[in-house]
Amino acid sequence: MTDPTLERWRLLLGEPGGACLGGQSLDAGAAARDAALDWLYGRDEDLRRRGVRQGGTGASVLTTVDWLDDITRLFPKETVERLQRDAVERYEIHDVVTDPDVLARIEPNPALLKAVLRTKHLMNPQVLRLARRIVEQVVRQLTEKLATEVRSAFSGSRVRRRGRLRLARNFDVVRTLRANLGRYQPETGKVVIETPYFFSRTRRHLEQWQVILLVDQSGSMTGSVIHSAVTAACLWGLPGVRTHLVAFDTEVVDLTADVDDPVELLMKVQLGGGTDIARAAAYGAGLVDQPRRAIVVLISDFYEGGDPRRLVRVVRDLVTQGSKVLGLAALDEQANPDYDRDLAQRLADAGAHMGAMTPGELASFVAEHVGR
Predict the structure, then answer these.
(1) What pairing do the DSSP bridges indicate for beta strands 324-331 and 198-202?
(2) Is residue 143 part of a domain?
(3) pLDDT tens, 242-264?
(4) What residue numbers bound the domain in which 59 lies?
(5) Rounded distance, CA 95 to CA 230, Å?
(6) DSSP β-ladder status, 294-299 and 324-331
(7) One domain for residues 227 and 258
(8) Which of 85, 167, 243, 338 is the most buried (most CB within 10 A)?
(9) What range(s) does the VWFA domain occupy (predicted)?
(10) Closest by alpha carbon to 321, among 341, 350, 361?
(11) Is residue 260 in some structural domain?
């Protein structure tokens, strides 16, 4: 029987790793997995140069549909998602998301959603309808997850004060014990409670705030665009919050009218193009009604194609008038930023809060300021 660890190394290295098995052949299942891996990674010139995995010279007999069927049968779900992600992002195998037969079989996941948004301009109407299934399912999953976090953030920290509403959940154990310690009975080890005490709980009052999300729709910001759309949808309609969503490249597009439908919103986003952050920031500043009740969230990699001095000036003016400015280099579940640190530092010096956040952390930031 082949050692499982050695077999994994053989699958990782491809045919050049045959020495791992000491001359033994792969069994049928492992050989099928090796063929599926080779279909994808055998096209990688860098791996070939490093002698890791070398694809055959003949034309592959596998179609993309065959390959998807094979990996779904041969690998666990997490591995399948990784292989699909590498196919669309690393090797740009566009028919993973533009072939109707493929789309009919594929299991939606966030990597495929990103691929759909990047390639939807290549799709005919029939394919676009199938691709929308991926958008709808993944967005629904993201919304359900984030909605829970948003509700938790906005449920309001409750003000705890002494009261007489006698509900078990409001029972003040510490104060009750302290007040009745004089009635401790050593023979029974119990405290006789003569006067119980309770908290009264009130929700904090929420006044009307504007939350203005300005989202860079350049190709590198795809994950942040997706999560911005979902975050805006979850904030939409909350008491005390009026949400705006604006996408930008060199142009500025106000998508607020579609905020309550993140699927439709994402299908309208046009990824790629240049970047004029200053123009978007100026547009966002123009939306502010009450400066001291506004949070302007600028989501970008801060590689400015416009006028950086104008951008810094707009941010400084927003901060001076009392608005909260939050600059996010990433808004997604990983919150791994890639950004122009020099410009980010200049914005921080102008008074903006700079960083990277998950959508849940952004909701908590908004809730904290709205609840003051």
Answers:
(1) unpaired
(2) no
(3) 999 999 999 999 999 999 999 99
(4) 4-137
(5) 27
(6) parallel
(7) yes
(8) 243
(9) 208-367
(10) 350
(11) yes
